[in-house]
Every structure is written in C-alpha cells, then in structure tokens.
Amino acid sequence: MLTKSEREEERKKLNQFLKVERMNPERLKKFKGLEHYSTKQAENAIEMIEMLFEGIFDHLSNSKSNNGKFRDF
Questions:
Q1: pLDDT by residue (tens digit) across 12-67?
Q2: What is the number of domains present in the chain?
Q3: Is 71 among the domain residues?
C-alpha cells in the first residue's frame, strides 16, 4: 500500500500528466476510439478523467480501516 506521501506524489504525477494532455487535446484524439471526437469532446474527456482520478484519490484518502491502514480494493 502507498503511504500518504507516496499517494500525494502519485497525485502530483497524475495532475502533471493531465495538464500536459489538457494543453494538447488533439493528442487525446489519437487514442483508440477517440479519433472521431471533436477537440471540445476530447477536452471534456480529459476533464472527466481528471474528476474520476480525483474521486479515486479522495476515496482512498478517506477509506481507512480500524487499524489505520488503507484498504485494498
């Protein structure tokens, strides 16, 4: 399991990756299945990915068992 500092580091890496992708939504359209989307739709997809990962990190941050360790899912 990741420690709190390791989770924060992973969150920073993910946010940096998403910022790079946000700056170039045309790049996202190269992923399989997204080549037919417009730039706006690609931007919306990036935003949804950000919200998804933010929700996962928040959930994991708040999901402690009685002994203080994070649960495995």
A1: 877 777 666 565 666 665 665 656 667 777 778 778 888 888 888 777 777 654 45
A2: 1
A3: no
